Amino acid sequence: MTNFHELPDSIKCDDMKNYFIEYLIYYSSNTNEKNVYYALSELLELADRQWHTYEILDGEIKRQLEKYLKSIIDFEDIDIMDYILSIIPLLGMASLFDYIEIHKCDIRNKAVLRIIKESEYEYKQNVDEPYAGMRNCNAKKS
Asked: Is the pLDDT of residue 135 over 80?
């Protein structure tokens, strides 16, 4: 069990990389239906802290996280999908978002389809660029 939710809000990028590696080592082989929500909540905590570094996540770590998330995704579970759709824009996981969109036609849960649609509207155009909205705000002020 990890306690990433207890980390300080501000963390250096190098330290964040190590926390993501620790996360992957622990949860890649230890996620099951009893702890999946906790594992995702911990990843959301890390993703939020990574976003606040204002630096793009290391590409290899992002690929490993996407692979992990694909292995635990349940398209019919609203809570799992809500966590994943919250993590995606923080880490710029365009590949994972594309994966979800490819499987959208097979999803029967209307609540899941609704949050996917909301996500498409909110960040689809810039899903690979977590800081796009910040740049757009600055550009409008100029």
From this structure: no
pTM score, two decimals?
0.91
Burial of 61 (0-12, 13-18, 19+ CB in 10 A): middle
CA distance 49 to 13: 9
Q: Which two tokens stand for residue 54?
A: 């204002």
pLDDT at 100: 98
C-beta atoms surrounding 113 within 10 Å: 15
Measured CA to CA, the distance from residue 58 to residue 78 in angstroms comes to: 28
With CA atoms as reference, report the closest residue to 103 among 72, 75, 71, 63: 75
Distant-in-sequence, close-in-space partners of 20: CB < 8 Å, separation ≥ 6: 46, 50, 57, 58, 61, 65
Q: What is the pLDDT of residues 84-131, one digit of tens each?
A: 999 999 999 999 999 999 999 999 999 999 999 999 999 988 999 888
